[in-house]
Amino acid sequence: MTLVVGLTGGIGSGKSAVADLFAAVGVPVVDTDALAHALTRPGQAGHAAVTAAFGPAVLAPDGTLDRAALRRAVFADPAARARLEAALHPLIRGEARQAIAAWTAPWGLVVVPLLFERGGFDGVVDRTIVVDCPEDEQLRRVVARSGLTVAEVRAIMATQLPRAERLARADDVIDNAGPRSALAPQVAALDARYRVPGAATAGAERPRSLRLPRDAAE
After folding, report:
1. What is the CATH number of domain 1-28+104-218?
2. Quick one: which of 131, 132, 126 has its CA closest to 108?
3. 113: Cβ–Cβ under 8 A, 6 or more apart, which residues?
4. C-alpha separations of 65 from 13, 78, 154, 218 in Å
5. For residues 152 and 157, what is the distance between their CA atoms, to the nearest angstrom?
6. Nearest 5°: CA angle at 185, between 180 and 189?
7. Which listed site, 5, 8, 32, 49, has its alpha carbon 20 to 30 Å from 125?
8. Predicted pLDDT of residue 217
9. 147 within 8 A of 175, measured Cβ to Cβ
10. Cα 77–chain centre separation
11. What's the distance, CA 172 to chain centroid?
């Protein structure tokens, strides 16, 4: 039976970089953000669901979703965010479950940004990894890559669990506070452990390199 590991972390923590490293060593990966993008292309079920929920105001002139407008709407209004999640999350979960059911590897990874916040993968995920870095570093990375303002990024972060709570709920932690080169050894250690049947869920203590950072409560 394939072990299903959920990967999560705050925005800008480096989830995609870590997932790419796991994929490079042969781990099957399902990325729910990628599923969401695929499902919301014109002609797909998610596109129809979002348009039905929000109307043509969230469409660009070419019929694609105006993702920037939609993002502004949902992060300014919790009710709008709940409406978007109600439209998309069941579709995303369904696609993810189909992909997971086809896995034949010893273990696989499902990347879910709001894994703890929404609980949609309870009963699916056997174990969790949190990718962690200081909140100031999250903010710096997201502003640099996205063009969002500091206020916009902080608004997104406010919809996610506080860092300390996310770390407290993790089974394993990958520390991404340093250079990218520091990720590969951590990925290799977890991959080796998860490939041993039963080892990952036997309640073993975290490896020292993956313990919670001292500043986790900041």
Report:
1. 3.40.50.300
2. 126
3. 8, 9, 11, 15, 32, 33, 160
4. 26, 20, 23, 37
5. 9
6. 140
7. 49
8. 36
9. no
10. 21
11. 15
Instruction: From 162, 176, 180, 179, select the one nearest 209 (Cα to Cα).
Output: 176
Give every CB contact of residue 206 below 8 A, 6+ residues apart in sequence.
171, 172, 173
Tokens of 173: 């932690």
Q: Residue 201, Cβ neighbours under 10 Å: how many?
A: 12
Q: Distance between CA 123 and CA 217 in Å, rounded?
A: 28
User: Count of alpha carbons within 13 Å of 67, Cβ hemisphere only?
Assistant: 9
| Nearest residue to 128 (alpha-carbon basis) of 2, 1, 3 | 3
Q: Domains of the chain: which residue ranges? A: 1-28+104-218, 37-102
- Separation between Cα atoms, residue 142 and residue 129, nearest integer Å: 21
Q: What is the tens place of the pLDDT at every residue in 118-160?
A: 888 998 999 999 999 999 999 999 999 988 899 989 988 988 9
Long-range contacts of the stretch 41-49 (C-beta < 8 A, 24+): 45/91, 46/87, 46/88, 46/91, 46/92, 49/87, 49/88, 49/91
According to DSSP, residue 65 is labeled B
CA distance 24 to 208: 24
Tens of pLDDT, residues 53-78: 999 989 999 999 999 888 888 877 88
